[in-house]
Amino acid sequence: MVPCLEVNGGDIYHGTTIVESGAICLYLAELYGKLGPEQDKEAHYNSILYTCTTLDAILVVLLMQLKLAKGRKSRLVKKMLTKFTAADCVLGYSVWWALLYKEGALLKDYLYILRYYENLR
Predict the structure, then answer these.
(1) Is the pLDDT of residue 76 over 60?
(2) For the chain, how many structural domains are there in total?
(3) Residue 113: which residues within 8 A CB-CB, separation 6 or more?
(4) Where is each GST N-terminal domain found (predicted)?
(5) 82 and 106 share a domain?
(6) Does 119 or 65 have the greater pLDDT score?
(7) Handedness of CA 16, 17, 22, 24 (dihedral sign)
């Protein structure tokens, strides 16, 4: 699902469709004079754009990897546990990184990944 806001007002956005979620939020905050910061506007803009351009991209890739791995988990884990390789170094580092976030909340439902990581340790 793609966020979308059709703007038909008499301002600079007349007849425009805004499809970026960050742009929609910034537009509405400016239009209604709400949801914006009273101070430190630069940090506010930076946070919104960082989230939309950096964090969203990371989360999409992570979600796709978890979704793809779920379908082939037993084959993948069996294959990776037979011999330690460079792939284990790379994947192990990524799993370690994901476990740092909110005490492993990203991977808590993926027991096969947690077992794999424990075997690496």
Answers:
(1) no
(2) 2
(3) 69, 95, 107
(4) 1-36
(5) yes
(6) 119
(7) positive
